[in-house]
Amino acid sequence: MARECVTVALSPHPYFDMGKTYAIHLGAAGNLSTVIRRRLPSGNEAIDSTFPGRICTDDRFTSYWIVLQDGVLSAGVGTCPGKKCIATLDDRLYHQLRSGVDACKFVGIGNSALGRHARDLKVRNVSVMPLPSLFGMGGVPVDKVEAVNIDQDDSLGASSAAAPDAELLSEYKRECAKAKARAEKFGTEYKQPPPDAFFKWSEARRLRANPEKGFVTGIDVMSAEEKAKAERRKARFAEDEKNRKRERGDDVEEGEDAKDNMDEAEAGKGGPSKEDENRNDPILIEHSWDNEDLVVGQRFDPPQHLWT
Fold first, then answer.
1. Each residue of 32-48: b (16+ CB within 10 Å) or e?
2. In a 10 Å sphere around its CB, with 0-12 CB exposed, 13-18 middle and 19+ buried, how is residue 97 labelled?
3. E strands, the chain, where?
4. Mean pLDDT of 45-57
5. CB atoms within 10 A of CB 27
6. Are 219 and 207 in contact (CB under 8 A)?
7. Residue 85: HSE in the Cβ half-sphere, 13 Å Cα cutoff
8. Which residue, 78, 60, 53, 77, is CA-closest to 2?
9. What's the CA gap between 33 and 38, in Å, rounded?
10. Euclidean distance between CA atoms 191 and 180, whole angstroms
11. Cα–Cα dist 39/70, whole Å
12. Listed residue (131, 88, 90, 124) closest to 109, CA to CA
């Protein structure tokens, strides 16, 4: 299970031996192709083959198989070796010239994506075995290479809905097939062209982006249960805010508490009392001195030098 660039290395030693190690890159170049490569001892050149196809998934496990027989290395998807072949490399000349000690004995699995595209892999059920004798001298029969889009292949566990860029990817595969046919016709070396060679830059960017799945909460925030939880959180946060104001000695909060209590009292009695209504009435000027205790807070006396 990986977003892109699942790499399987076949080596005669427990390390990458330049010139003798095969590397199979499944979902290379942003999950746009599969590359089988053997780097030459110089490190600057390589024998490789590239085939288009989007075959990596990061939301479910996918089965792959790899067969190396008589110098021909093939890779495919599925649980049946030889079926749904997605890439092959014919390296029979090296197979005839190499010594027996250079036969592949070790297998390594990793992620060859670099920088921000690198992700952890999840691997399970790895099996390594020699070619079964029941196939005889002919080896495992391998199908002709086909371009596979794992998001559209129902036999590989794809969803019923096609990927948004499936049509664009199919067009890219057709253009790559045409380019490969031209290379074979004129006897030139085939190198898989980038998406920019066929599409507008915006479409090519979409293909290379290999977008990850969006964030899904899995919670119905409009359900009655979630609304009740939201109300409880709101009440808890409001109470915490009141406690912080009380610790700071904020009088306004106490007044708000008194108002809440008064509202509750009014709701219980059916309305304010007559005494409360009279207390809120304005006081006449001639009665001000008789009610000095009520107005002393609002009274402002002139300076003493103005009294005479």
1. bbbbbbbbeeeeeeebb
2. exposed
3. 6-11, 22-27, 33-39, 46-52, 64-69, 72-77, 85-90, 106-111
4. 84
5. 27
6. no
7. 19
8. 60
9. 17
10. 8
11. 19
12. 124
Residue 215: which pLDDT band, with cuts at 50, 70 and 90? Answer: very low
Question: Residue 263 pLDDT more than 70?
Answer: no
pLDDT at position 120 is 76
In our burial notation (b when 16+ CB lie closer than 10 A, e otherwise), range 191-219 reads ebbebeebbeeebbebbeebeeeeeeeee
Cα 115 from chain centroid?
15
SS (H, E, C) 130-155: CCCHHHHHHCCCCCCCCCCECCCCHH
Q: What is the residue-wise DSSP string for 168-202? A: HHHHHHHHHHHHHHHHHHHT----PPPGGGTS-HH
Contacts of 163 (CB under 8 A, 6+ apart): 54, 149, 151, 152, 169
Range from 88-102, 174-188, 210-224 carrying the lowest mean pLDDT: 210-224
Name the average pLDDT for the chain. Answer: 76
161 vs 172: CA distance, rounded Å? 20
Closest CA to 225 of 235, 215, 233, 237: 233
Residues 6+ apart with CB under 8 A from 126: 107, 109
Residue type, 41: P
pLDDT tens digits along 86-125: 899 999 999 888 888 888 999 999 887 766 566 778 888 8
